[in-house]
């Protein structure tokens, strides 16, 4: 069931951010372990976690496009601009995911820096969303009327 109230949209996205954060942390830890001497993880572990994260992120981006962007459009006078920026940013993220998923085997030497940058960018992106566009002040259920003078 799709959320209908702005607060429900916010709560759903925040829950998914928590899940994504856990996946990011796990992938970062396994990637770091892969580079360590005597690490317990293999390239196959990183590949498996990457594919799982990419599927999770792809679903999350689709959800945000489907429920967050419309909620932002209705939020205030700048809603269309916020929603358009969100959708553009998601297009950039999809291009990066497409590149990273375009290989059957993840070469840790080649993709490690790009993967580390993606993980950093995703964390920063979620923090930005949570602070700016997922705030209770912006995505609120009650309609606040701007004071108008009669006359």
Please describe the structure with a list of short key phrases separated by commas or semicolons.
0% strand, elongated
Task: Write up what this structure looks like.
The chain has helices spanning 6-35, 43-75, 79-101, 108-133. It is mainly alpha-helical and 151 residues long. Helix 1 runs antiparallel to helix 2 and helix 2 runs antiparallel to helix 3. The radius of gyration is 19 Å and the shape is elongated. The termini are far apart. The model has no long low-confidence stretch (mean pLDDT 84).
Return the structural class: mainly alpha
Tell me the Rg in angstroms: 19 Å
Please outline the major beta sheet: none
The proportion of strand residues reads under 5%
Which residues sit in consecutive blocks of at least 5 with pLDDT less than 50?
none
Shape, principal axes of CA atoms = elongated
Tell me how many strands there are.
Answer: 0
Element order: H for helix, E for strand: HHHH
Number of helices: 4
Q: What's the mean pLDDT score?
A: 84
Summed up:
This protein has 151 residues and is mostly helical. The chain has helices at 6-35, 43-75, 79-101, 108-133. It has one domain.
What is the fold's blueprint, element by element?
Blueprint: H1 6-35, H2 43-75, H3 79-101, H4 108-133
Helix pairs in contact: 1-2, 1-4, 2-3
């Amino acid at each position: 069931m799709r959320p209908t109230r702005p607060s429900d949209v916010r709560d759903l996205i925040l829950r998914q951010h928590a899940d994504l954060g856990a996946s990011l942390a796990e992938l970062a830890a396994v990637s770091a372990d892969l580079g360590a001497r005597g690490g317990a993880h293999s390239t196959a572990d990183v590949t498996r976690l990457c594919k799982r994260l990419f599927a999770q992120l792809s679903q999350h981006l689709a959800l945000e496009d489907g429920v967050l962007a419309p909620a932002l459009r209705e939020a205030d006078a700048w809603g269309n601009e916020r929603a358009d920026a969100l959708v553009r940013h998601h297009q950039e993220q999809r291009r990066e995911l497409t590149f990273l998923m375009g290989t059957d085997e993840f070469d840790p030497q080649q993709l490690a820096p790009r993967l580390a940058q993606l993980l950093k960018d995703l964390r920063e992106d979620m923090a930005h969303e949570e602070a700016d566009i997922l705030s209770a002040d912006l995505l609120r259920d009650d309609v606040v009327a701007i004071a108008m003078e009669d006359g």
